[in-house]
Amino acid sequence: MTAWYQINQRLFRREQAALETAQPGMSLEIRETGFRINREHRLKRECAVAAGVYSLKAPGTGVYDYRIVVLPPDNYPASPCIVFCDDPRLPMGNIDRHILSDGQACLAVPGDLRRRWKPEAGIVGFLEQFVSPFLAWQVYYDAHGCSPPWGQRAHGLRGIIEYYTEVLGIPAESNVSAFIPFIARKNPPQGHETCPCGSGLRLRNCHIAELSEARSRIPWKAAQQDLSAISQIVGNRNNGNEQPGSLASRKVSSFAESRSMSTTVAAGEG
Ligand SMILES: [Zn+2]
Q: How many domains is the chain built from?
């Protein structure tokens, strides 16, 4: 797959200029194999990388600078960027702080991130919408030694399940994971199918409305991403690896060691 910056050089230059204006401490460049992402990772092949010092302007409290590395995927801007921390104040492998073992910042549940991402926002918009709240959360954590009362969703499997429970508007004790395959497929569920809630009823007499609502809010491809996330997390647990972040870190390592970043970052792209 040809990368986005090769296909659309004008977009690349526009992103470059916009980033320079909004975040003078960062720059978007095409980096070669071996470029240092952080102390755990180097690029395994050429990529466009936005790296440097991100200035978080917190109203009333000042400016906080953090070193980050932003990687737009090959199919950017269709899919959103991934972000690595490269800053001693952002400890790697600290799941409480939503930072995975390789330094990747866990910004949101994958399907949720994808649903909220607007391709026209650009890298600067991505930073403002997703990275800035993440860093503001980190600032609070540093100051208080605990999570702020606002902000991020739980991690990994629990985070995904919470998210779907909310969107479906069903009780937390429901068998939420059984609903996700009905959201993650292209064709809408049919009334005669058995409802995933376990009632034994046909969908038309049960949770069809909740499912249709969820399908209207979550693109099926995004749900597919969450579904594969779940199966990876569950798979890792069965292998005795309990680390909640293993899904995303596995995605990233396969990118960094990469055969093809697009297969991991843009899984489910049609
Ligand atoms: Zn039902």
A: 2
